[in-house]
Design a protein that fits this description.
The protein is of the alpha/beta class and 449 residues long. The protein contains 19 helices and 16 strands. 44% of the residues lie in helices and 13% in strands. The termini are far apart.
């Protein structure tokens, strides 16, 4: 018995749009029903099971958001893509926030329509382990909430902003969203925005043509082209300079990029996930981050919990991390003693899971290979918790804060063996930011051997 083709519902009051979409979808092997208004669409939804709904935002008897709410209540799991008027970025963002799978702008581009439909139809295809063993470990309430949110975000194409402290697993969350999404078979391209020289940013993001500038000896694809069909993860997006923020905003809104030295724009099919440990809302208020880009990136926010918020998961996390490292070393996993586990659970972990992983790697090197004792962890669990730190009323606040920053940098440099790149990673800042702070605090010479 042959498999029936997937069925799509197209809702638009313009007959030529309905006809264009129906012809295009049928050539893709998709059966189509059409409706010219909200009422007709609701009647068809009650009669048949659809794999996708494409709806205009403006309908004679309602709007696309109303249809989305109806589908969410009566037909959960059905992906809905909305069609918005040209230049109506606010409507597109509103639809994505309301749960739309994706959006198309008029005039409809068939180059954008086809990958959208293909991605939506993949949502119903089962997969054994799309994440390839990647997982958020733990059973505490915060980590369960994060897992549930990731599962929800995987069924959408909306831009996602992942917030959280340094080392809390923001990139892992991005990889899980990608792996469980309809783009899971496409590329996942992580980009550290703070590590790219400002004069090369446009070329790195959008690519360049041969001869576009001195040294451009051949055509080169940028991050957007390489990530086509997949996900582009912009880590530490707060480090983007303002001129690059303008160009990134246009690429996200128009779904098109222009290579440096080229005269035409190319359509790109990329989902954007961004992250930073910094507060983008505060940066926006201070004029350091564009408001329009902030609202395009922060369509849906996923907050990754700090390790201290899920202390009950530390034993399971520690065991999982040890197993991973020992597997890589092809050695047996040592046992964490009860005293060692107690110390781990008492420690505040300002560096979160990344710091836990570093502590366990160090303990593996110091242990006898059979068990890890509390002494192997080299943790200072008697240090005052972060919440108990009080400012000296006799010291001006700026000097007091600089003192805290100085201590944090010195500790990170000590932990990293005076390696500035590793220290920057521990602190959750870019190398460029650390170098600037070292100079401002007068620590450059102090740290020289």
């Amino acid at each position: 018995m042959s498999k029936l083709p997937p069925l799509c519902l197209v809702v638009d009051d313009e007959a030529d749009i309905r006809e264009l979409l129906a012809l295009t979808l049928e050539r893709m092997g998709v059966s189509v029903d059409t409706a010219c208004n909200l009422g007709a669409a609701k009647c068809l939804l009650e009669q048949k099971a659809y794999a996708l709904c494409l709806t205009d935002m403006r309908l004679p008897d309602g709007d696309g958001l109303e249809l989305m709410r109806h589908i969410g209540q009566r037909h959960p799991g059905l992906p809905v893509a909305v069609i918005t008027a040209y230049g109506s970025a606010e409507n597109a963002v509103a639809a994505l926030k309301a749960g739309a799978f994706d959006y198309l702008s008029k005039p409809i581009s068939l180059k954008q329509l086809r990958p959208l439909v293909q991605s939506a139809l993949k949502l119903s295809e089962p997969s054994a382990d799309p994440a390839g063993g990647l997982a958020l470990v733990g059973e505490s309430a915060p980590i369960r909430q994060a897992r549930a949110m990731i599962a929800k975000l995987a069924r959408s194409q909306a831009p996602v902003y992942i917030s959280g402290e340094s080392g809390s697993g923001k990139e892992l969350a991005a990889r899980l969203i990608h792996a469980h999404s309809s783009r899971g078979e496409g590329p996942f391209i992580p980009v550290n925005c703070g590590a790219i020289p400002e004069n090369l940013m446009e070329s790195e993001f959008f690519g360049h043509k041969k001869g576009a500038f001195t040294g451009a000896v051949q055509d080169k694809m940028g991050f957007f082209q390489v990530a086509s069909g997949g996900t582009l993860f912009l880590d530490e997006v707060a480090d983007l300079p303002l001129p690059m923020q303008v160009k990134l905003l246009r690429a996200i809104q128009e779904k098109k990029v222009r290579m440096v030295g080229h005269t035409t724009e190319d359509t790109v099919d990329v989902r954007i996930i961004s992250a930073t440990h910094r507060n983008l809302a505060h940066m926006m208020e201070a004029g350091q981050f564009r408001q329009d880009l902030y609202y395009r990136l922060n369509v849906i926010e996923l907050k990754m919990p700090a390790l201290r918020e899920m202390a009950q998961d530390i034993p399971q996390l520690a065991t999982t991390l040890l197993e991973k490292h020992c597997l890589a070393l092809a050695s047996s996993r040592p046992i964490l003693t009860e005293q060692a586990l107690t110390q781990l659970c008492k420690y505040n972990f300002p560096g979160n899971v990344r710091e836990l992983e570093n502590v366990l790697e160090r303990a593996l090197a110091l242990s006898d290979g059979i068990r890890i004792e509390a002494a192997d962890l080299l943790l200072n669990v008697t240090a005052a918790p972060e919440s108990s730190v009080m400012a000296d009323p006799d010291i001006p606040l700026p000097e007091y804060l600089e003192g805290i920053e100085r201590q944090a940098i010195l500790l990170a440099m000590e932990k990293s063996g005076q390696n500035k790149t590793a220290a920057a990673k521990l602190l959750g800042v870019s190398f460029r930011t650390l170098r600037y702070r070292l100079a401002k605090l007068g620590l450059g010479r102090e740290l020289e051997p």
